[in-house]
Amino acid sequence: MQREVQWFKEVEKLFDPAKIGEIDVERNTFMDHFTVNHKTLSEEGEKWMKNTANSCMIVSTLVATVVFAAAFTVPGGNVGDTGIPVFLRRADFLVFAISDALALLSSSTSLLMFLSILTARYAPEDFLLRLPKRLIIGLGSLFFAIITMMVAFGAALYMLLKDRWESIYIPIIILGCIPVLLFAKQQVPLFYDMVQSTYGSGVFKKKKTW
Asked: Using CA atoms, how far apart are residues 107 and 46, in angstroms rounded to an integer?
């Protein structure tokens, strides 16, 4: 649908600007004809966008829930009734705190982006830039949230086990990279295609002039 709208916009440039809003005997403009002729494609695009947003929204909600809970149950606990974390002055605790905060912020961002996709009006013009841009931001922030969540997990595991079971926590941290790699393998091609089709050269490749 995005490609079809891009074609329409390129062809529209070839017409006299004064005639673009011109209506026929049935009082339909060029865009009205385009909307009618691409109704089925528009519905399929809307269905795909909503299904993708719903699926990613579940993951975003899960990540946000986990990292939000981790912020209040820090590794090692707190000192007495002061609420100060035991590992506050350690560098690995700083890594945990920063990565956990970034995971919460990025997962919340992706959640809002996917929610905005579900509540969009899905007009033909929205498929040109608005909807793809929201999906790009949503996927990018979700991928970043998963990475920072696993970093927070690795830092927490390091703080708890480094003094006793070094042979255990290192393999676990390495295995923690598997979810990130699986998500990247499945979603990076889609992310790349969306960026290329939205911010690339478009349907008509512009030739360089020397």
From this structure: 23
Sign of the dihedral defined by the CA atoms of residues 178, 56, 131, 51, in that order:
positive
Least confident interval from 71-75, 108-112, 132-136, 138-142: 71-75
The predicted structure's pLDDT at residue 208: 44
State the Cα–Cα distance between residues 161 and 165, nearest whole angstrom: 5
Cα gap 202→7, rounded to integer Å: 9
Separation between Cα atoms, residue 133 and residue 140, nearest integer Å: 11
pTM of the model: 0.78
Q: Catalogue the long-range contacts made by 19-24 (C-beta closer than 8 Å, 24 or more residues apart).
A: none
Q: Where are the domains of the chain?
A: 2-7+20-199
Look at residue 78 and give its three-state secondary structure.
strand
Output the CATH code of domain 2-7+20-199: 1.20.140
Question: Contact 169/158 with Cβ under 8 angstroms?
Answer: yes
Q: How far apart are the first and last CA of the chain?
A: 34
Residue 118 and residue 50 in contact, taking contact as beta carbons nearer than 8 Å: yes
Strand-pair partners of 78: 85
Tens-digit pLDDT profile for residues 7-22: 777 776 666 555 555 5
